[in-house]
Amino acid sequence: MKALFKVDGLPGLQLLDTPVPAVRDDDVLIRVHSTGICGTDVHVYQWDAWAQRHVTAPLVVGHEFVGEVVETGRHVSGFRPGDLVGGEGHLVCGRCRDCREGHAHHCAHTRGLGIHHHGAFAEYLALPATNVWRHNEGTGPDAAVLFDPLGNAVHTAGVFPVLGEDVLVTGAGPIGIMTAMVAERLGANSVTLADVSEFRVGLARDMGVRRALDVRDLTPGSGRGFGVALETSGAAAAVRQAVELLAHGGKLAALGLPPQDFPVDWSTLVLKSIAVQGVYGRRMFATWRETSSLIDNGLDVAPVITHRFPFTQFTDAFATAAGRTCGKVVMQWHDDGRSRPHIP
Q1: What pLDDT, in 10s, does the model give residues 14-28?
Q2: Which DSSP string do the residues of 184-220 spell out, in sequence order?
Q3: In the chain, where are the structural domains located?
């Protein structure tokens, strides 16, 4: 099969031939239909400081995917060939206190798909059955390939109660846009989405986010400041602006991964009594159930996919994803019979 590898400590990836993964007793073998390029994948492609600290080559990268079951291990039940599936990209130990108490998303021994474990940018992927999610019948291929980042959005929007609050979302990438859409569905009094990219602000408006604007036009929500800030960009300037615009007693949920360390005005956090919560991945598997419910009840996030490429054009796909004039970039590995044509 073909797979995209990080081979050495240099920018870029290589498309190589490699054996189809062996299926262990507790594994599910998945024929990958399509994959989404995440900001984390761009870090790995560019081989920045974060990637150098966390990734050991050689490695198949990628973690956002949808595909179909082709084979199951002998201890696996509940899946059959042809099932449309995605997968939780955080492989946890199952034995630590957090895992045993139902908080597996806090597992300190987590290994990331495409970061520590061979990933999804391949024609086939073997994944432990405990990490495989079977999609509902009504879930289309576009919604399905977005479940990982949409799950990030659902988790982030739900960290703090947003019902009746003025909410600020910083970063109008795909996750930021979807976070704003989810916060609106959760009953926020108002949702303001801010970004430096005119294209992404426009995309957010086209997808129904009512108050999407340039960061230079940001003002406090209702005069007292925003009650909740949801940070999805990882940009130092966005974090500082969120802290500045939060009301006293405000809450900050931070999902965006910064490419490098940056200083934080700790005294302002203290004096404004701001609560800060890091958000890592999805709650297993409550977030997946909540995400399915939102899709089943009409949340349409498919338009966040703006570009599609065959996997053989991965260089162009990553160049597009690294720019500011795109939403989600998807690579096609196998035709699922339902996907729309490639958009060049």
Answers
A1: 999 999 999 999 999
A2: HHTT-SEEEEEES-HHHHHHHHHTT-SEEEEGGG---
A3: 2-146+301-332, 154-278
